[in-house]
Amino acid sequence: MSKANRCDVGPCLDAIIPFATRWRELSLAGRTTSFASLKKLQASTLDYLETLEIGITNAGAVLTNELTVFESAPQLQRFAVHSIGFPFIAEPDPFPWKNLTHLNVVSGALPGRCLQILKECTELICCELALEYADEFVNYPHITVPRLEALQIRSPFADLLFDYLTLPALRTLKIQPVDCGGIPDVDHTPLYGMVKRSQCNLEKLCVDVSLIHTADIIGTLPLVSGLRYLSMTLKEGSELWYPFITDAIFDALSARLLDDGDWLCLAPKLETLRIGPCVGVASDAIQSMLESRQVWEHMEAIQNDPPSSTMLNNVAIYRPCENCWNAIELWYIQDSAISKSHIQRPPGSRRARSGH
């Protein structure tokens, strides 16, 4: 929130509350104390309200029953809360959670409380969560969100949610850190467990590999035959101290001709691939993977009319240049040809500043 928004929203609320029965969208930003006027809505019927956005600007503040006035908003479908600190530390307020199709909880939410809320959101289609801290829950609730198609999580604790979520309708999953992540446990497979349990038809997967181990992603690939978009990246600077991306992912994505004459290719519908930076990955591993998939795609096109697979043609694989510390090797496909070029690192990049 900008400083211009850090004002007492109370007088504004007092001015617009007489028109509450006609609201379709409501966006508020201020300190929690300035939301006291919301209590005047207790007797109002918010029949037309569809979108609600609340920004909490005082650090560490919590919502304490401010949301109960929106119980009378039967058409509310979109709810976003932006906060500095902990927006939910008590039981979820009475609220039309079950009607929501879109939910954004940005900054400071706790995994256990979010799971409690998601349990109520039976109609939810799209969700963004920013989780900054673990909470006091010992046993998180196992929940199913039956209609959720798109989930974006920004947190160092994404695995906490995956261990307890079942998402049968999931199509798009994005996992990002708030800051540089740590080193994920190679023996912990939260992504695989969630996808297998959900039996979802995942089409787009974007993962920061400092949060989900590459081995977990590789293990998940056989479960997502409809995957069309795969992105495995790192927040800038993470690659300098741990080799998160290895040859193993390129080996897993390679197409193989089996002894019986059949082909094995994971993620056969893959169209877009983004990977990098690939520190320590051999150029041969990248080229071999791309070539093998092109051979397999060619054989599929000959044997099947129309082909049962799609072509991998939107590729961006980044690898540090071995001969020039301030350049990046970029692999891509152009006009069906595997290509490689060198691009200059941005002047402010950490690698360029460090001189490694």
TrEMBL record:
Q: Which domain of life is it from?
A: Eukaryota
Gene3D superfamilies, sorted:
Ribonuclease Inhibitor
Q: What is this protein called?
A: F-box domain-containing protein
Show the taxonomic lineage: Eukaryota, Fungi, Dikarya, Basidiomycota, Agaricomycotina
